[in-house]
Amino acid sequence: MLRSICLLLTPLVWATIWGGLSTASAHATLVLGHFEVTPARPAADVPITLELRLEDPTQVPVQDAVVLAELRPAAQPEAKPLRAEFTETETAGVYRAAATLPRAGAYRVRLRDQTYRQEEADATLGAPLRVGAPNKPQTFVFPPTATGSAGWRAWLLWLIGLPVVAALLVTVLVLTRGDEKPQGAA
Fold this sequence. Notes:
Blueprint: H1 2-25, E1 31-38, E2 47-55, E3 67-73, E4 82-85, E5 87-88, E6 94-100, E7 105-113, E8 121-124, E9 129-131, E10 138-142, H2 152-175
Antiparallel strand pairs: 1-2, 1-10, 2-6, 3-4, 3-7, 5-6, 7-8, 7-9
Helix pairs in contact: 1-2
């Protein structure tokens, strides 16, 4: 009887443990990005292509991201930004957006990662995008963000709750074992 109870409970216990570990270890990480403008020397009122390559710290392409760019004239930081939404290309982790900048000059580029509703990461490029002048590719980092998880409560559940449940299970199994005599005893 004890063996049949153990056989029934083993898959349930393992599923609970693995499910809990995946929840407790889930966290936001850095996203490394590479930004490039085509043509490299854009002109005013001419469409340009903005390209992003996103990867995680282990250099795995980041797919299915929702990213948009906000471009503001550097001389007018309070001006309403021109927005461009990136779409993923056939190549994993590569995104493109189109924009047309109305006048020559420098534009500040702010990239916003809105993949998850409960979090948003943003990065402002170090060098402005220049219309009428050459632009070099730039790298940036989307910082890790809060994921909206339960935080310390989730850790308490798994660090205290799971061992208590396991101890109770072992206690019940030992107490229900009864007075079984070992084989060969008279």
